[in-house]
Amino acid sequence: MKTKFFACLLVFSFLFATIAPVQAAKSDSPDNRYFIKSKASLWKNSLSVRNNFENGFTADLNDWQLRLIKLFGVEIEKVHKLYVSPEIAPDILSDNSDTSGKRPIRTTPDLQVPWGVGKMYGDSELASTSGGTDITVAVLDTGIARNHPDLTRRVSDCKDFTTPKPVVNGKCDDKNGHGTHIAGIIAADGGGDGKGIYGMAPETELFVYKVCDASGSCWADDIATAIQAAVDNGAQIINLSLGSDKESPFIHQAIDYAGDHDTLVVAAAGNDGPYDGSIDYPAANSRVISVGAMDDKGNVPDWSSRGANSDSTLGEHNENDLMFVAPGVNIESTWKEGYATLSGTSMATPHIVGLAALLWNSAVEHPALAAEEAIQALVQDIGAPGEDNDSGLGLPTLK
49-53 and 76-78 as β-strands: parallel, antiparallel, unpaired? Predict the structure, then answer.
């Protein structure tokens, strides 16, 4: 009986391995990624493995493959998607925004030091910025316009996690624009002629790991794999301007891995406000610095996600707490071509990341914790007195 069973299994496996690639290529489902809870080489050899994990692997499955796996009683789970935090409606952007939904592109920046960077530095008249030498920041996003004059010298590692494995080294083209915008807020260096835009820490090195496609959607397993790769390759800080209402166990484990290796993870709170406890994951994770948005007058916009700080122990960083706010309204930065202005907690997050790069001290025993404590020491209270759901601990600035 057992011999017959295994003979059938081998026949199925042969057919499976032969036609699976063709079937997978014809799949029309955008949500067809599954975690297969098996270490058996039979399944790994029969499917196109996306990412390996301790208890199994992920793969994109079509309906036929899905039915066959269930027939053999293999346990599977759907892998969910996260999304880069969407930009806010054009009517609250800068005056030169149009109303057609198209992003206005400028060939030169309106200001070389945008208002948000100046706010973080405590100097609205700042002509340029500096700092971040020997610090590496990993930006996990839609990629980067690597040839942008203000960013071309900043990228030291570039990988694409969105393609069929293996990971593509040296390729991280940004077909969305979001990742380029985030990278510029952190590390834009003014360009070779010094006439471009300046970010928070223009001497940092960037690991640009493309984990989101052109539409801004990102698979949780790709993100988790990229987080671990960033840690293993020596990134001190990770920027995650993306989120979901649902927590991913893959990303949760990867964040634990980062924390255990003294890598600081900073993530966007999301644009789901003004409701208390509306923070997205992974920002809601207690081991992540969560960042909300504020405008140039110090107000938290309605759309910025709120924390659940009022339900937490004062002074402790708990699940669903908002840590800080930072400039996130009408933020000018690098774009796929030239410069553009966007709003969102996505834009607030890299301001805190850049600040962490400026304050990073590699000589201490736990530099990530030290950087977090250094940021807290610079906090200015805004909104309601003390820690609150809208602004967390407040706005950290250098002056």
Answer: unpaired
Domains of the chain: 2-79 (no CATH), 83-396 (3.40.50.200)
> Which residue, among 157, 247, 249, 246, has the nearest Cα to 204 in the 3D structure?
157
Residue 80 annotated in active site: no
Question: Shortest CA distance to 250 belongs to which of 211, 284, 230, 223?
Answer: 223
Residues 155-160, mean pLDDT to the nearest whole number:
98
Active-site option among 148, 178, 181, 317: 178
> Residue 204 corresponds to which amino acid?
T
- Alpha carbon distance 341, 68 (integer Å): 49
Among 136, 135, 154, CA closest to 145: 154
Whether 178 is a known active-site residue: answer yes
Instruction: For 298-331, give one letter per residue: b (16+ CB within 10 A) or e.
Output: ebbbebbbbbbbeebeeeebebbbbbbbbbbbbb
Q: Which of 60, 97, 141, 244 is catalytic?
A: 141
In a 13 Å sphere around the CA of 109, the CA atoms on its Cβ side amount to 29
- DSSP class of residue 267 equals E
140 strand-pairing partners = 209
Does the annotation count 181 as an active-site position? no
Q: Which of 85, 241, 346, 391 is catalytic?
A: 346
Q: What Rg value do the Cα atoms of the chain yield, rounded?
A: 22
C-alpha closest to that of 271 among 139, 86, 140 = 86
Per-residue model confidence as pLDDT tens digits over 319-367: 999 999 999 999 999 999 899 999 999 999 999 999 999 999 999 999 9
Neighbours of 379 (CB within 10 A): 18
Q: How many CA atoms lie within 13 A of 243 on its CB side?
A: 29
pLDDT: which is higher, 7 or 241: 241
Amino acid at 367: P
Do residues 290 and 301 touch, judged by C-beta distance below 8 A? no
Tens of pLDDT, residue by residue over 259-289, are 999 999 999 999 999 999 999 999 999 999 9
Helix (H) or strand (E) segment spanning residue 83: strand 81-84
- What is the b/e burial string over 35-51, where b = at least 16 CB atoms within 10 angstroms of the residue's CB? bbebeeeebbebbebbb
